[in-house]
Specification:
This protein is mainly alpha-helical. The chain has a domain at 130-313. It is 49% helix and 9% strand. The protein has a 3-stranded antiparallel β-sheet with strand order 1-8-7, with no helix packed on it.
Length: 481
């Protein structure tokens, strides 16, 4: 969910007899057509006028009027309009360690008996959405492993172990036939036309994957179609960071199986497939898989077979994503920057620092040249932090770019830090004039919101913010803001 909201910035304060009702309908408010129709009926305004308008005080009494319409409009929460006459400004930088600990405590509390995590909560609906995503589940476990490696906080071990066991139980066997590899090497999976028929033909001949191999892929529902490659990559990365922090070898068999599963989804000479039943690559999963293999190689450099595949992946992905005219880049940016940092740390090869530098430059110049004041951007900060760390470690002479990255990190994190739910908090300020009283808000203390006008939280939003702040401290960038 990428929620945005409208602003009335720069306008004069309302008269005492009125309040500004900034009805930011967009992605988060009044989710259904019927809710907007009810609000129009109460206020007497046309629906288009509700998108952004000044509503007099009498009309706002609808939120206090008894009757059956309230639940439809408020969707289980109470919205209160308050006149402030200015927009809410995110607080200045707080103690990141305190915020990280609070967020980590939230994730641990959100872990279910299954080992997975409670996925999300929409405070406007006052309920969970009912959605889930196995890749984000793996990412949540991974950030606990990253935090454990960074702090050696032993409270993390039971939570990480429970998650690894859950991913193991959710894993399906997979392998790759020799003929499949041969077809990949001649470039068959790269043919740009007739891909639907190509995929169907490969499936018919059993050349998409072997369901009886020694590798494993993590699936969200025991089906190969839902075995997203990113989930296997992040489960592997979680185990590797946990192993490096603890020395615990109990999950070594799973590590090997997930590595083989990831290799089964690698297209020879190219990137990684979306899932066992899809032949196309995906930007997110290319980045996540590259990072997992890079980290594996850093932990186990003696594995020459994996190192050889990784070398091919290095060259292919850096060439693919160096060209701004090809493929989506934002989805790849932060994972690719983190992978490039690991590869530079392992090899000291300046081709990785060069790649990270140009990725950061393209991000600032073209992908996201301006700050989005409303959206949670912790994932992008992870990429910027990794790029900055590479520039510092490689002693790159582009000090102007490094300064731009650090300044942008400071701007983004001032906003992001203000998106964390505080202990005991009961109200969300949704932009100067609108606040939301949410009955369950305090139960999610430590979680991060989707944005200033997006009163919902999800495990990956919190995961990315934890990881971003860990990286800022680890690379000495927190003091540079």
């Amino acid at each position: 969910m990428e929620a945005k909201g409208d602003h009335d910035g720069g306008k004069e304060s309302p008269a005492p007899e009125a309040v500004v009702a900034r009805t930011v309908i967009g992605d988060w408010a009044f989710r259904t057509k019927s809710s907007v129709m009810h609000l129009a009926w109460f206020t007497g305004l046309e629906i288009p006028d509700l998108i952004k308008t000044r509503v007099p005080v009498p009309a706002l009494r609808l939120f206090h009027r008894p009757g059956a319409y309230g639940p439809y409009i408020c969707a289980g929460a109470v919205m209160v309009m308050v006149a402030f006459g200015h927009d809410v400004i995110a607080p200045a930088k707080a103690d990141d360690r305190t915020q990280v600990r609070l967020a980590v405590d939230h994730l641990i509390a959100a872990q279910l008996p299954s080992g997975l995590f409670s996925y999300d909560f929409d405070f406007l609906k006052d309920d969970r959405t009912g959605e889930d995503h196995i890749v984000r589940q793996a990412a949540a476990a991974n950030v606990l492993a990253e935090y454990y490696l960074h702090t050696k906080d032993e409270r993390m071990r039971p939570a990480i172990e429970a998650a690894l066991k859950a991913f193991g139980e959710m894993s399906l066997p997979i392998g790759k036939r020799t003929a499949q590899t041969a077809l990949e090497r001649i470039g068959l999976l790269s043919v740009p036309i007739g891909r639907y028929k190509l995929r169907a033909t490969l499936d018919w001949f059993g050349l998409l994957y072997r369901p009886d191999g020694t590798g494993k892929v993590v699936s969200g529902d025991e089906e190969y179609g839902r075995a997203h490659t990113g989930a296997t990559a992040l489960a592997l990365l979680t185990e590797l960071e946990y192993f490096r922090a603890s020395g615990d070898k109990r999950f070594a068999d799973l590590r090997r199986a997930w590595l083989e599963g990831l290799m089964s989804l690698h297209i020879a000479g190219r990137g990684f497939r979306y899932s066992p039943e899809v032949i196309d690559e995906e930007a997110y999963y290319n980045g996540e898989s590259w990072l997992a293999l890079a980290y594996y190689n850093d932990v186990f450099p003696q594995d020459q077979a994996t190192a050889a595949v990784l070398s091919q992946v290095d060259d292919y992905l850096m060439e693919k994503y160096a060209d701004s005219r090809r493929s989506p880049r934002t989805q790849f940016f932060h994972w690719g920057a983190m992978a490039a940092l690991v590869r530079f740390t392992t090899t000291s090869d300046r081709k990785f620092s060069d790649f990270a530098r140009e990725q950061a430059r393209h991000f600032l110049d073209a992908l996201r040249p301006k700050l989005d004041p409303d959206r949670n951007s912790c994932a992008l900060v992870e990429g910027l932090a990794a790029a900055a760390a590479v520039l510092i470690a490689s002693r790159d002479d582009d000090t102007a770019l490094l300064k731009r990255i650090q300044e942008r990190i400071g701007e983004e994190m001032t906003k992001n830090r203000g998106l964390q739910i505080r202990p005991g908090q009961q109200r969300l300020e949704l932009g100067g004039d609108v606040s939301l009283l949410a009955p369950h808000l305090s139960e999610y203390a430590g979680a991060f919101l989707a944005g200033a006008y997006s009163p919902m939280t999800r495990i990956d939003l919190t995961q990315h913010c934890i990881s971003a702040m860990i990286k800022l401290e680890r690379y000495g960038l927190d003091s540079a803001e």
